[in-house]
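Troubleshooting entry. Yesterday's outputs looked truncated, so today I'm pasting the complete records for two proteins to confirm everything comes through intact. If either block looks cut off, that's the bug. Protein one:
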Amino acid sequence: MFPLAIVLGLGLWWQDAQAGRYGIVLSLGGGAIALWHLGLFTGVILEPIQPCTATGPSCTDDSQVVIGVPIPLLSMIAFALIFAFSAASLKDPQT
């Protein structure tokens, strides 16, 4: 998500009418990662067996929920909105 802010921000700064192309590509990649993370959270995708570390957060516990909504779902929604707005920005305006 962080590269999107830089790339789309520079596109606005330079008034690049085609900057939405980069938003589409980056949002598809981010959405795929968010979908994988959501699969881990819901248990659809099983994590491979790994040794436990006491210092890192788990991808499946309750710390990944904000106001009852899982963070991976929130990020997937954000990437979908970025995709939609980037695609809409590429359409020619009716004159």
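Protein two, checking that the full record survives here as well:
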Amino acid sequence: MGDVIEGETTVAFVAIVEGTQMMLEELARLDSVPISAVLARAVETYWGRRINEASNEAYATLKVDPKAWQELQDERSEWDVTLADGLNDE
């Protein structure tokens, strides 16, 4: 986990509670990365989780509407036939 997330950086001051600061420092020490890299990973993980939750909610909404759910299943079936399109069996 020694990789550092790269990108353009800015300076921002954020007030955090002492316990959070201690955890950030410990994670940075354990991974041998700057605290900014720990924060970047944490935010990316949280972002991914939120997207996943939103996706799950959207599918749950579809599932309660039988017509909409069937339309999705029909569309998936249409796309499934393209999975091996033009590929030889190996």
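Both blocks look complete. Sanity check on protein two: The chain is about 65% helix and 0% strand.
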